[in-house]
Write a structure and sequence with these properties.
The complex is a heterodimer of chains A (194) and B (134). In chain A, 32% of the residues lie in helices and 29% in strands. Chain A has helices spanning 3-15, 65-82, 102-111, 126-136, 183-192, and strands spanning 25-26, 32-36, 41-44, 53-58, 89-94, 119-123, 140-147, 153-160, 162-166, 171-177. Helices cover 10% and strands 56% of the residues of chain B. The chains are: A alpha+beta (194), B mainly beta (134).
Chain lengths: 194, 134
C-alpha cells in the first residue's frame, strides 16, 4: 500500500470515530415497565443498558408516517448488520396502548418482516406510556374522530416525528426525524458509539 | 344523432386521457389501515379534481393528506385533489394519500387489489394497486 492510500484509509477509519453528538442527557433511573411483542416484561430503559439503540414512537393504525419510521428502522438494522455492526438494538414504543396490545405488535412485526432478534416493539399501561412520552418530549394528540357505518371508532394522531439515538449508558446522544431518517447517518452514528 | 355520438366517441378515443400509474399499497393485516399511493397523469389542458376513491377491500376509503404542525405530523381528510392540466400529481408517502381504513382482508406482498377513482367530470377509472413491503 502506498503512503497516500494508507493516509486515505486512516482518514476514512477515523472519520467515523470523530462524530460530535449534539446531546448528552441521561435518561434517568426511573423505570417504565413495558411489554414486548412477545409479551415479555421489560423495564425501560434499565433493561436496555449495555448496548446502543435507536428509539422511536409509533401507532400501528397509522397508515402513512409511522410505517415510514418502522421501515427506516429496518433499513438501518439491515445496513448495520451488513457493515458488521453488532451489539445494537432497535426499539419502537406504541403511543396507542388501547389498541396496540402485544399480539397486535406481534402481527405488525410479522407482516412487515421485522427481524426481532434485536428489534423490540413495546406497549404498556397508558399512564406509563404517557409518563415516558413526557420524559422524551414526544407528543401524540388524538385528531379527527369518526365512525364506520357499523360503529367502529376511527381516530388518528397528530404526533411527534422523532427518533432518538441512545448510547449504552442510556444517554440520549442525538435525535432524527423518524419518517425521514438518513440511514447512512444513523449507521455511522452507531459506529461512532462502538 | 348517431353520427355525432360516433364522432364524439372517436374524439375521446384519440384525445389524451387521465392516466394512473405506479399504484401501490403497504402490506397490512385485516382490521388495520394502510395507504394507497399513485401518480395521476393529466396530459389534457384542463384541470381535473379527484373527488372519490372506493374499494371493496376496506370499510372506509378516504383521500387524506399528511401535514406538519410545528414539530408534529398529522393526517386529515381532504374533499378533493386538483390535478392541473399538463401535470402529474404524486400521491406519495408523507404527503397526499388514499387512506384505506379497516381492511376486510390481509394484504400480502404481491397481492393486487381494485380501486375506482372518480373525478369531478364523472370520469371513473378502475385501477389495480399492488401490495409492497416498503
Amino acid at each position: 500500500m502506498n503512503p497516500f492510500s494508507l493516509l486515505l484509509f486512516a482518514v476514512l477509519i477515523f472519520a467515523g470515530c470523530g462524530r460530535k453528538f449534539d446531546r448528552d442527557e441521561f435518561l434517568g433511573q426511573k423505570e417504565y415497565p413495558l411489554i414486548t411483542q412477545d409479551s415479555s416484561l421489560i423495564n425501560f430503559p434499565q433493561d436496555l443498558k449495555g448496548k446502543p439503540y435507536l428509539l422511536g414512537f409509533i401507532f400501528t393504525n397509522c397508515p402513512d408516517v409511522c410505517p415510514l419510521t418502522s421501515h427506516n428502522f429496518q433499513l438501518v438494522q439491515e445496513e448495520a448488520k451488513n457493515q458488521g455492526i453488532r451489539g445494537i438494538n432497535f426499539v419502537l414504543i406504541s403511543f396507542d396502548p388501547d389498541r396496540d396490545k402485544p399480539w397486535v405488535l406481534k402481527e405488525y412485526a410479522n407482516i412487515r418482516n421485522i427481524d426481532g432478534s434485536n428489534f423490540k416493539l413495546l406497549t404498556g399501561n397508558k399512564d406509563t406510556i404517557r409518563a415516558l412520552m413526557k420524559k422524551m418530549q414526544v407528543v401524540a394528540i388524538s385528531g379527527d374522530t369518526s365512525k364506520t357505518s357499523d360503529g367502529d371508532l376511527i381516530y388518528f394522531y397528530v404526533h411527534t416525528d422523532k427518533a432518538f439515538l441512545i448510547d449504552k449508558d442510556n444517554r440520549i446522544r442525538t435525535e432524527y426525524r423518524g419518517s425521514h431518517l438518513d440511514v447512512s447517518q444513523a449507521v455511522n452514528d452507531f459506529r461512532s458509539l462502538e | 344523432m348517431t353520427f355525432i355520438i360516433l364522432v364524439l366517441n372517436l374524439i375521446s378515443l384519440i384525445s389524451p386521457q387521465i392516466k394512473i400509474e405506479n399504484a401501490w399499497m403497504r402490506n397490512a393485516d385485516k382490521g388495520m389501515n394502510t395507504a394507497l399511493y399513485l401518480d395521476i397523469i393529466n396530459p389534457t389542458s384542463r384541470a381535473y379534481d379527484l373527488v372519490n376513491v372506493s374499494s371493496d377491500i376496506a370499510k372506509v376509503v378516504q383521500i387524506h393528506e399528511t401535514y406538519k404542525q410545528g414539530d408534529n405530523l398529522g393526517m386529515r381528510k381532504v374533499e378533493s385533489i386538483t390535478i392541473k392540466g399538463m401535470t402529474t400529481f404524486h400521491l406519495a408517502p408523507g404527503g397526499f394519500h388514499v387512506m384505506v381504513i379497516r381492511l376486510k382482508e390481509n394484504l400480502k406482498v404481491g397481492d393486487k387489489k381494485e380501486f375506482i377513482l372518480t373525478f369531478s367530470n364523472h370520469l371513473k377509472i378502475k385501477i389495480m394497486a399492488v401490495v409492497k413491503d416498503q
